[in-house]
TrEMBL record:
<feature type="domain" description="N-acetyltransferase">
    <location>
        <begin position="5"/>
        <end position="154"/>
    </location>
</feature>
<protein>
    <submittedName>
        <fullName>GNAT family N-acetyltransferase</fullName>
    </submittedName>
</protein>
<dbReference type="GO" id="GO:0016747">
    <property type="term" value="F:acyltransferase activity, transferring groups other than amino-acyl groups"/>
</dbReference>
<dbReference type="Pfam" id="PF13508">
    <property type="entry name" value="Acetyltransf_7"/>
</dbReference>
<dbReference type="InterPro" id="IPR000182">
    <property type="entry name" value="GNAT_dom"/>
</dbReference>
<dbReference type="InterPro" id="IPR016181">
    <property type="entry name" value="Acyl_CoA_acyltransferase"/>
</dbReference>
Length: 163
């Protein structure tokens, strides 16, 4: 059984290490480097098993009501062992503490090709309570349609509108 910790230093190198181990998801070096640089300024949490960070999540607060999962990735040999679920739990805890009512994520939308790794990613978010909200066909690139997913967070204060 592992534990979740906040990562305060070495965020970019950890990001590079995990993303490079996932070429089926992250094959473009410039995307890996941009992600590594971007998370340096974000809250990052890691899931640790046997003193190894097996997965990470970077969170980006938006306005007062939403937190975005800017990146979540698990080393391939640890897929399916619960690290992602623990990191989603941590994102929810962080979001609640920040006063957010929504947790959001952007991922690759279905395309007309066999991509089981991205279908597995979308199913992961489905299982964890995210709703497929909208597809932005050209947000990233015309060949990389973006699926925007939203998870309303429990515990909305009395008097607030629930989603």
């Amino acid at each position: 059984m592992g534990r979740t910790v906040e990562i305060l230093t070495g965020k970019a190198e950890l990001c590079r290490s995990i993303m490079r181990a996932l070429p089926d998801w992250f094959s473009e070096p410039e995307v890996i480097e941009a992600s590594a640089q971007a998370i340096e300024e974000l809250p990052v949490f890691g899931y640790i098993e046997a003193d190894v960070v097996t997965a990470l999540i970077a969170l980006k607060p938006h306005l007062p009501d939403a937190v975005e999962i800017a990146l979540i990735a698990t080393r391939p040999e640890h897929h399916g062992r619960g690290a992602g679920r623990h990191l989603i739990d941590e994102a929810e805890r962080f979001s609640h503490e920040a006063g957010a009512r929504l947790l959001t994520v952007k991922t690759l939308a279905p395309r007309d090709r066999e991509e089981p790794q991205f279908e597995a990613t979308r199913r992961f978010y489905d299982r964890n309570g995210f709703i497929r909200a909208e597809v932005f066909a050209k947000l990233w690139h015309e060949d990389h349609p973006c699926l925007f997913m939203v998870k309303p967070l429990a515990g909305v204060q009395a008097g607030e509108t629930t989603l």
